[in-house]
Each structure stands twice: as structure tokens, then as C-alpha cells.
Design goal:
236 residues; mainly alpha
Length: 236
């Protein structure tokens, strides 16, 4: 089956080269125009790639097609060599491994890319991957040391603030935050927030709310290990 990520990226590249070729042909006797239009084209290409990167998760983080998307992303990582896109794909692949409970593959893949992910000089792109990695391996000290509340607004992912509060046993605050970040799309991010809400409700012994969350959780695809864990624990 054709890879939708690779095909869409190659389509963008094809359009880019066709436009560049057209500019050269039309303005072959006007070098200045070629240079100006080329600079504009480069800027537009950067904008298009950025929009493309932002939309990749929307294509892949569906709770219905986790196994299929894992192979799709892995193939795209091997075939697409644009650094920004490749970084985004690696991030999504690690995330999909983690939610699918491929513990060994997850840890191995993170460690294989450790120079890229754990480089002290790298940008905040890998910040959330490192936080999730430390949380999953129960490395509380490393998580708390890395977590930076000032990055909350830039990262725009409240899950990591919720994890931070849970690690500090601030369950009431974590619960309130989990209630604020709901989603109508019922995607994987929603499932994860629901899972952390259940943890808070367990510790706070709020039985009615807990039962409601459990009943909602078990409706999701149990390829997601957060769902399977709740099913195994409560729905025997």
C-alpha cells in the first residue's frame, strides 16, 4: 500500500521544483527577477513544510489505526530526509510505540536516537519526548529536574503538567487540570488525559466520577495500553 506521508511530501517537492523551473523559464533573461522569486519561493516552501509538519499528527494519531500508522511512520522516517519533517516523524513514532505498549521497542528506539533527543544544545522539540521517557521509566528525579513550567505555554501540551502534579502527589490540582483539557475528537491525547484523570480519582477516592471515567475509557481501542490497563484492572 502506498505511504500517504511519503506521497504527500513528494507532491510538495514536485510542485516546488515545477514552480522553480517555471520561474527560470519565464524570467530567463532577467536574473534579478529569478533571484527575487527564488527567495520568495524558498520562504513559501518553508511555510508550507511548517504547515505540513503541524498537520502530520492529525493524520496519524487516530486511536483506530495505531498498528497501521506505526508501519506508515517508520517507512516515512526511512524515506524522508528533511530534518524538520524527520524530527516530527520520529517524535510521532516514539509516541505511537509508547501508547501501544511496545516497551522494548520504545526504549530501544529512544536510545538509538539518544544523541538527537538528549543533546543539551538541542531545541525544545524533544522536550516532551524526554519527559514522557522519564515518566514511563519511573525516573521521577530526572522528570522533575527537566520539567520547566515556563515552557508550558510554548509546548502547549497540558499532559506534562498533569504528570508533574501526579508525581508530586498534587492530585486535586492535577484532576482539575485534566477536566479543563477535554476534546471532542476522542483522539489518543484525550485517552491519555482520561487515564491520568482516573489515577487522580483513585487516589482521591471519588468513586462515582471514577466509575464514569472507567466506563468511558473501556470504549476505546485496547491497542492503546492505557485502555488495556484499565480494562485489565476493572473489567475482569
Amino acid at each position: 500500500m502506498k505511504n500517504k506521508i511519503v506521497l504527500s511530501y513528494r507532491f510538495i517537492i514536485l510542485v516546488y521544483y515545477l514552480l522553480a523551473f517555471l520561474i527560470v523559464i519565464i524570467n530567463i533573461n532577467h536574473l534579478e527577477r529569478v533571484l527575487i522569486y527564488s527567495l520568495i519561493l524558498i520562504v513559501l516552501f518553508g511555510i508550507v513544510v511548517h504547515i505540513y509538519i503541524l498537520n502530520i499528527p492529525k493524520l496519524l494519531l487516530s486511536n483506530k489505526y495505531i498498528e497501521k500508522n506505526l508501519s506508515t511512520v517508520k517507512e516515512a522516517i526511512d524515506k524522508i530526509h528533511n530534518k524538520s519533517i524527520n524530527d516530527s516523524l520520529i517524535t510521532i513514532y516514539i509516541f505511537l510505540l509508547e501508547i501501544s505498549n511496545y516497551k522494548e521497542e520504545y526504549q530501544n528506539f529512544v536510545e538509538q536516537n539518544s544523541k538527537r533527543i538528549f543533546d543539551e544544545k538541542q531545541n525544545r522539540h524533544w522536550y516532551t519526548i524526554k519527559l514522557q521517557y522519564y515518566y514511563n521509566l519511573n525516573k521521577k528525579d530526572e522528570y522533575l529536574k527537566l520539567y520547566d513550567s515556563q515552557l508550558d505555554n510554548k509546548v502547549k501540551n497540558p499532559l506534562f503538567k498533569i504528570m508533574y502534579l501526579i508525581l508530586n502527589e498534587e492530585y486535586e490540582e492535577a484532576l482539575e487540570l485534566s477536566k479543563k483539557v477535554t476534546s471532542q475528537q476522542k483522539d489518543i491525547g484525550y485517552v491519555m488525559r482520561l487515564y491520568y484523570r482516573i489515577i487522580c480519582l483513585e487516589h482521591l477516592e471519588k468513586e462515582n466520577e471514577l466509575n464514569d471515567c472507567i466506563n468511558e475509557m473501556v470504549e476505546f481501542n485496547d491497542q492503546i495500553h492505557y485502555v488495556k490497563e484499565i480494562k485489565d484492572k476493572y473489567k475482569k
